[in-house]
Please model this.
Amino acid sequence: MTGKPVDKLSSAEAEKELDRLAREIAEHDRRYYAEDRPAISDAEYDALRRRNAAIEERFPLLVRPDSPSHRIGAKASAKFAKVVHARPMLSLDNAFSDEDVAEFLGRVRRFLGMKDDEEIAIMAEPKIDGLSASLRYEKGLLVQGATRGDGQEGEDITANLRTISDIPLRLKASRSAVLPEILEVRGEVYMTHKAFDALNKRQEKDGKPVYANPRNSAAGSVRQLDPSITAGRTLNFFAYAWGEISELPAKTQSGMLEKLGDYGFMVNPLVKRCETLEQVLKFYRDIETRRARLGYDIDGVVYKVDRLDLQERLGFVSRSPRWATAHKFPAEQAETVLEDIEIQVGRTGKLAPVARLKPVTVGGVVVRNATLHNEDEIARLDARIGDTVVIQRAGDVIPQIVRVIPEKRPRGARPYKFPDKCPICGSHAVREVDEKTGKADVDRRCTGGLICDAQTVERLKYFVARDGFDIEGLGGTMIELFHDKGLLKEPADIFALTEKPEKVSKVLAAHRAQLSEERRAAEGKDPVKTKAKKEDREDKVVENLMAAIERRRTIGLDRLINALGIRHVGETTARLIARHYRTIDAFLDGMKAENAREELESLEGIGGTVAEAICDFFGEKHNVKALDRLLAWLDVTAMAAPAKSSPVSGKTVVFTGTLEKMTRQEAKARAESLGAKVAGSVSAKTDIVVAGPGAGSKLKDAQKHNVQVLDEDAWLKLIGG
Ligand code: IVH
Model:
């Protein structure tokens, strides 16, 4: 924010500027809330508010009744703008053992049709334990920086990333490094151990909470709404990948890393090009022994097929590339005491046993809870309350109990009896038996369905969560509170809240009053006799909440499907379904159709169990009715058509005979990535049969059904080489 330094302002100038700022900020709030169309970045907005606050501090008598500083919780606490990644930011498959790594290389070779002993160059890189970011450069200038988010859409944290000195604001060009017009660089923001320790010392001194580990503190630091806070923290960045790029300056991963270095990025100095499994594993062990002395956290090693043309051929499975994997370091372990076992009931009714532990630090994080999975697992471990147990924690994974130490078992420790009733609604909790196999499910589920409050609340929480409706300000506690007070039972009720702001406001005020009473009681003070005062702050909270709900009345089909909380349907499956049906009407029609299950199963990535779960969901009248009530509030946007349409999209293709230029697996993956459906047998519905030498009955079937037959070369020509 430019303008005269605050300490140089005259009183008249200050008055004028406060007037201008009040109007300006109000206008930005209106654009943001009412139109969802902010005109300035969060950073610029924050600067306006800071300027306003600074002037008010110097001229307290000039504070206006309509000052933006009275409006706590307005945009300043709002979040970052969303950024849709030009290319999705993917995740990596994991390998935990040498065998897993050998299997990864085997898979790569098989896919590419290479011999078992044929050499394939692999780039091995330390796996930095920070948070990934994408930096977009246009004509060499940094124009945008974003978090990974869900991989498709992240948050705009440009202002914060600009403060990191490892991130060039302008790329270096040289004779050996011609800059691509557009370059999205991906890498990891991390904090060194030294910076982490210094930051925590400072936090402690200022009476602020300390961070659990360098990764959390790096994440917390880049997600500050005020970039000056980020600037005060020492962060670093390693570049290791790219997103959209107008022109590839190299043909290999190793070559690309070299170019990224030329452009001015830090590239991890330990990366190594390997040619055999032995070299790859040696790299892993070397790094593992050096791990503690690196000065920053890594949680494994990443292997990437070096040649980019091979990467391109290998492509992706769901959200991870076939050409890379992460070889994780073993999880860290610690000993502690199992103090209790509690049962949590999830949205699908699953009774999940949670171990309450004596707090213990594992890999720099204090662990209080661990998952016990299910009753069989408790029996297998023979875990009893009071037992000393070994727990382990790997990266983001929820801590687990690995084993019990029987020698340390106290006398009288009794085996745990798993409940056969839901602890919330009292309904029977059963282990369903699979009709086909006759085997009981590992999970015990509450049969209470709609009458079970735990399931209702968990479903609602899932509905508003980040991958679903992502309603800002409506978190778990508020859902529980509104459910308790009878305001929420099903998703449609969330939108109905916008018609009763008074009621919402009352519930919140009463809740706040109760909390402060409890606090006073805990501090041993007398209760305050006055009635709960409705504060301005409450109004603002309610106003923001109403606006946040209102904004989500327009929602993408994929998010809607995910939010429904159908068993086995997560974000990826929801997206597959949405891409297939495109519009809500087509989707609903599809679910009513007789062949609903078949159609779902025909989608790449959706199997029998998932298709059945979806059909079961739509087979329940109450689900359909609840969805109808919800849809009355919504404007569901259609899924965009795939960016490129290919000559084979929507066609059904059958491969037969020997393919000579690629393996069957690669041919299938390629065809599917171009929008074709690959079938195993020829019927009247088949569009193309690709026949190599040795083709037999399928070729005959093709002739019988009058289906177009292509040889491998003609097929390759059709799909563009
Ligand atoms: S490559 C398509 N290289 O690991 C693959 N990732 O589990 C893109 N990470 O989200 C990632 N060091 O945050 C790659 N040398 C490295 C990495 C690395 C750390 C992180 C990154 C990614 C996650 C995947």
Residues 90-92, 125, 127-128, 132, 148, 188, 240-241, 302, 321, 324, 326 surround 2-(butylsulfanyl)adenosine (CB under 6 Å). The two ends are 54 Å apart (CA to CA).
